[in-house]
Amino acid sequence: MSAFDPARHLPDDLLERISERAAVHDRENTFPQQDLDELREAGYLSILVPRERGGAGLGLAEAAVLQQRLASAAPATALAINMHLVWTGVAKVFSDRRVPGLEFVQEGAATGAVFAFGISEGGNDLVLFGSDTDALPQGDGGYAFTGTKIFTSLAPVWTKLGLHGLDTTSADAPKLVFAFIDRTDAVVTSDDWDTLGMRGTQSRTTRLNGAVAAPEHVVRRIDPGPNPDPIVFGIFSVFEILLASVYTGIARRALDLAVEAAKGRRSKKTGMSYSQDPDIRWRIADMALAYDALPPQIAALASGVDELADHGARWFTLLSGLKHRAVVMAKQVVDEAMLVAGGGSYFSSNELSRLYRDVLAGMFHPSDPESAHSTAASAWLGPLES
How far apart (Å, rounded) are the C-alpha atoms in residues 93 and 242? Predict the structure, then answer.
């Protein structure tokens, strides 16, 4: 088997074009349609699809490397594509474990379908373990979903929306229902994405008014609450690893820009390059030490998912901890990079200024800091006493 070459799936010239467009989409608050078109043409939407189904046959560990690479060029594009890759990654988790039901996701991704992630709901801190969206059984095995989903990345372009809702009327209710719907008149996408950063994701609010999932696209019916079902592990593992990858990619770009700035700036006081200033050298070393810890952690956990490692309940502590450490590290690195680069980085036209705004979004994705710490505390200290 030949060695994995990231440039084969994300060529340098493609990344350069995507990078050049990133500032425009941020400034104009527009979706990077051309990025999506070029990535689809390059086969990027199906990197996690098996070769026998028309994809590249990559593992999650390889996809994580690619998402770090893409994020270093255009964080918002990478974060938007993440949401599509989450579903293809969950499909891979299923197929690797011989769990049927998501073959249509793999086939769709290989033929150009765009999958979006419709899990987040305002005020629902249960996330995967509960839903305020009503899932009404249709009698034929299908479901009609009514409710509101927030932060729906890829909002202008998705063709299939993976979502969940709560069935409260069936004989065995309540049941959480995971399914996929098409874009129809029963789906209303608001034009409400006007944010501080990550503007190109166009993660708009989605209102569902009886949007129907066909029986063959109803993937899972499970009990609410913590659950060992493959749909929960699949979503949680792929989501957290790919999120960590995006923010680690941002950190790498900020570090590179800081090094470039240090070498390019010269002190009027000493006449020397700032790269020779002990304080600047210490600051960049601190950034590098923080950054260097994350790629190996991402690789180890992603490989564990690919190789069916059995960490039991500890998986959730490891995964939420990875995502938390990645976003904390990335914010620290971008903060330091701004100081190394000096006042010029404060201008909105400066790339570091955009990275500074983009990286803030990391704290709002699940698992948030409170959830990550609660999970870790329970793992080490046991559950809270009632």
Answer: 14
Q: Cβ distance 193 to 202 under 8 Å?
A: yes
Token pair for 223: 């009990």
CA distances (Å), origin 271, targets 265, 266, 278: 10, 6, 14
Q: Tell me how far apart the alpha carbons of residues 99 and 291 are, in angstroms, rounded to a whole number.
A: 36
Q: What is the pLDDT of residue 2?
A: 64
- In angstroms, the CA 55 to CA 37 distance is 17
Q: What is the DSSP letter of 209?
A: E
Q: pTM for this one?
A: 0.97
Q: Is the sign of the CA dihedral 91, 107, 76, 125 positive or negative?
A: negative
Q: Which two tokens stand for residue 238?
A: 């792929």
Instruction: Report the chain (386 residues): mean pLDDT per 10 consecutive residues.
Output: 88 98 98 98 98 98 98 98 98 98 98 98 96 97 98 98 98 98 98 98 98 98 95 98 98 98 92 94 98 98 98 95 98 98 96 98 94 94 90
Buried/exposed code over 68-80 (b: 16+ C-beta within 10 A; e: otherwise): bbbbbbbbbbbbb
Structural domains for the chain: 6-114 (1.10.540.10), 116-222 (2.40.110.10), 230-381 (1.20.140.10)
Q: How is 92-133 classified by DSSP, letter by letter?
A: HHHHHTT--S-HHHHHHHHTT--EEEE---TT-TTGGG--SS
Could you give the CA distance from residue 313 to residue 92 in angstroms, rounded to a whole number? 21
pLDDT of residue 291: 98
By the 10 Å C-beta count (0-12 exposed, 13-18 middle, 19+ buried), 278 is classed as exposed
Q: Is 372:240 a contact under the CB 8 Å cutoff?
A: no
Q: With the CA atoms of 261, 262, 265 and 268 taken in that order, what torsion angle do they form, in degrees rounded to the nearest 10? A: 150
What was the pLDDT predicted at 268? 86
H and E: helices and strands count for the chain: 12, 8
